Amino acid sequence: MVSPSPSAAPGPSLRQILQPAVIVGALGYFVDIYDLILFSIVRKASLVDLGYAGDQLVSHGLLLLNLQMIGMLVGGILFGVMGDRLGRVTVLFSSILLYSVANIANGFVHSIEAYAVWRFIAGVGLAGELGGSITLVSEVLAKEKRAYGTTIVATVGVFGAVVGGLVADLVHWRTAYLIGGGLGLALLLLRVSVAESGMFSQMKGNAGVSRGNFFALFTRWVRFIKYLRCILIGLPTWFVVGVLVTLSPEFAAALGVTGEVRAAYAVSFAYLGITFGDLASGLLSQRLGSRKKIVRAFLLLTLAGIGAYLLTRGESPAVFYGIVFLMGLGVGYWVVFVTIGAEQFGTNIRATVATTVPNFVRGALVPITMAFTWAKAQFGLLSGAAVVGAACIGIALWALHGLEETHGKDLDYFEAP
User: Fold this and answer.
1) Which of 6, 218, 278, 401 has its CB surrounded by the most CB atoms within 10 Å?
2) pLDDT recorded at residue 395
3) Phi/psi of residue 316, each to 5°?
4) pTM of the full structure
5) In which residue ranges of the chain is pLDDT below 70?
């Protein structure tokens, strides 16, 4: 009897891919993104309700946002090290518990001081979810199937931003926070069904392996440059979200858009695009057998989207939102970007890398906005954005070029000290 050829072998079934780690990771990231975006949407309403007005809405809003981002930088390192020392599942559920409690607490704040404390704590908790999920899924699924699993995690997760925008429009801001916290706590009931990564379990039994050493990323030049490149390929994502989408009302006015443009709607359209982009980039990377080719193509799509955004004048809000959707589609390589980081390094520092890389990219919003502020003063709003956007794309393409292709790579190995 003739055996079927490899090309005729059936693809992986949903049952093989939809393991508990994938399901819980996807739902956890959904709530993670819901909370991350929710603050940007309810910022004004919540601060007005707390008694602030005028310039305080901007100054206090930036303070809370910066504390959240600082929390994510701290949490990225904390949960990354925990993931390599205590386990991927421990990080996954510790982060869910922390940001769920912080979400609920945000729904009860009555002062800017309490709000600030809980936004920082929320940022710490939010930092661990994506990296922990991607690391666990990458190690639990077979190397031929892991891109499908990480795609599901990211696609379902990013859709949380769309839902967050809709919920914030329908209910009071306090209720929106309580809903997010309740969803996160409900996820903890699924903990018993998620098994630890076999790779981590084997590594834990090896006393001679150094685990979760964050500083090991800086002890060898080649390893440091590889880590830096993993971070830099994500820069365009937060330039688009943090600058072009967040400031969409200001850009719309400068472009002569013929009607009102609301930031909340722009965020929803951008993340809807990111949802479809994550799905497409993940599946295409699996189909074509390449992470790098897909990220390169999506970076060029992002460049085209930025160009359309900054050059299209006098259009309706509907056309403007459509271009925002296109930019979101372009930066929807986020899932492949995080997966690349997880696949570049050995099991003993994989969670550290996978958790810190996306949070350092989020933290890079600070220098990006500083560069934009400078460029805006030099060249004007639209030209300044074009200069910074082109720089982010150029840096990302350079960083991507120097990384190895990791599709189908065997991940069962350790990094040397």
Assistant:
1) 278
2) 97
3) -80, 165
4) 0.84
5) 1-14, 191-193, 207
Task: Identify the pLDDT of residue 35.
Answer: 86
Cβ neighbours of residue 89 closer than 8 Å, sequence gap 6 or more? 136, 191, 194, 195, 196, 197
User: How far is Cα 111 from Cα 326, in angstroms, rounded to an integer?
Assistant: 39
Kindly state whether residues 171 and 252 are assigned to the same domain.
Answer: no
Instruction: Please indicate, yes or no, whether residues 405 and 278 belong to a single structural domain of this protein.
Output: yes
**Structural domain range at position 264:** 214-417
pLDDT at site 11: 52
